[in-house]
Structures are given as C-alpha cells and as structure tokens.
Amino acid sequence: MATIITHVAVPLVLRMGIGKAKVSTQLLIVACFAAVLPDADVIAFKLGIPYASSFGHRGFSHSLLAAALVGILASICYKPLKSDPKWAFFIVSLSMASHGVLDSFTNGGLGIAFLWPESNHRYFLPWRPIEVSPIGIKNFFTARGLQVILSEIVWVWFPCLTIGVFSSLLRKTLKRRRENNVSFNVSHRL
Ligand SMILES: [Zn+2]
C-alpha cells in the first residue's frame, strides 16, 4: 500500500479542482475516509486469511465494485453530506477506486484485485515508482518509512498538488469569465 495519509491526496485534489460548492466539507471527509477504507483489510493478516485470497489484503476491498458500492451508499445518504446524489457517488467512488490505482503504482506486495468478483487476478501498473509502505505503525518510523514518505511526496503529493492548483485556477478563471459575460449581456440589454 501507499501510506494511509497519502491516499487522501486524491479527494483533496478533487475538492480543489471541483470546488466546495459541489464538494462540501462533509462530502470531503467521507471521501477521505473512503480513500483509506480499503486498507482496513489488513485485518486479514491477523485472521490468518492468505494475502492472495479474494478476502486478503488488496483483494475485494480494493476492487472497483467495492468502490462503486460505497459510492452508491454515499449517494443514498447525500443529504447529510450537503451534496446531491450524483456528486456524492462520483466523489466517494472515485476516491475509493483511486486507492487501488495508487497501490498498483507501488513496487511491492501483490497486485490489486480490481475486477473482483469477476476475477481475483492481481494487477499492477507497468510503471511502479512508489515505494511500498511497510505494514504496521512500528515499521513505519524507520529509515525505510522515511524512504516511502519521500517517494510519495515526489510521485503522489507533488503531481496531485500541481493538478489541484491548476484546476482550481482554471475553474475560477472560467467562473469569472462566465460572470463577466452575464453582466456584459445584461448591460447591453438595458
Ligand atoms: Zn491498499
């Protein structure tokens, strides 16, 4: 896995790019939770479930179906999220699906069962620059843990922040242009 903190980079970028009018703070919090949720499956190690099993780490919980189901749940509960069903589904399911995508960029462990239950095949992307994160808190505060954080800053946080800043600027520019066009049309009609 990439580290838990790094998985929230995707919902944060979605909020920066789309804006808080559509991605409320409540929806952002749920999306951050959805982005880290798949790694709750590390409990499988304690339960003696084999890594390669569908119910092992990076199995069903990292699949696109699981992301879609959690997105549907969010779309049903859209009211407390101060959103609408479409945006609640889109933001939450995309945030959760991004977890598996980021994991598939890592250079260790088994791949991701994206297509579960159709197949338990474990997929990696052909290019895997992100250092795989150690499992367990105590393994994290080591030289290896530092190496993982540096790799995630370079390969996840920096590109995500760049996309977030540029998409936010683009959205604000387009909004300003729309508002200017509206006031121009109104003043011409008067
Ligand atoms: Zn994971």
What is the topological layout?
Blueprint: H1 4-7, H2 9-18, H3 25-36, H4 43-46, H5 64-76, H6 85-103, H7 137-140, H8 143-189
Helix pairs in contact: 2-3, 2-8, 3-6, 5-6
The structure holds zinc ion.
The site of zinc ion has 7 residues, from helix 6.
What keywords describe this structure?
mainly alpha, binds zinc ion, 190 residues, 59% helix, 0% strand
Give a description of the structure:
This protein is mostly helical and 190 residues long. The chain has one domain (4-189). 59% of the residues lie in helices and 0% in strands. Helix 2 (9-18) packs antiparallel against helix 3, helix 3 runs parallel beside helix 6 and helix 5 packs antiparallel against helix 6. Zinc ion (ZN) binds next to helix 6.
Short account of what is shown:
One of its GO terms (molecular function) is hydrolase activity. The chain has 190 residues and is mainly α. It has helices at residues 4-7, 9-18, 25-36, 43-46, 64-76, 85-103, 137-140, 143-189.
Which range does the strand content fall in?
under 5%
Biggest pleated-sheet summary: none
Q: What general outline do the C-alpha atoms trace? A: elongated
Low-confidence segments, given as residue ranges, are: none
InterPro entries: YdjM-like
GO molecular function: hydrolase activity
Keywords: Hydrolase, Membrane, Transmembrane, Transmembrane helix
Transmembrane segments: 60-78, 90-116, 148-170
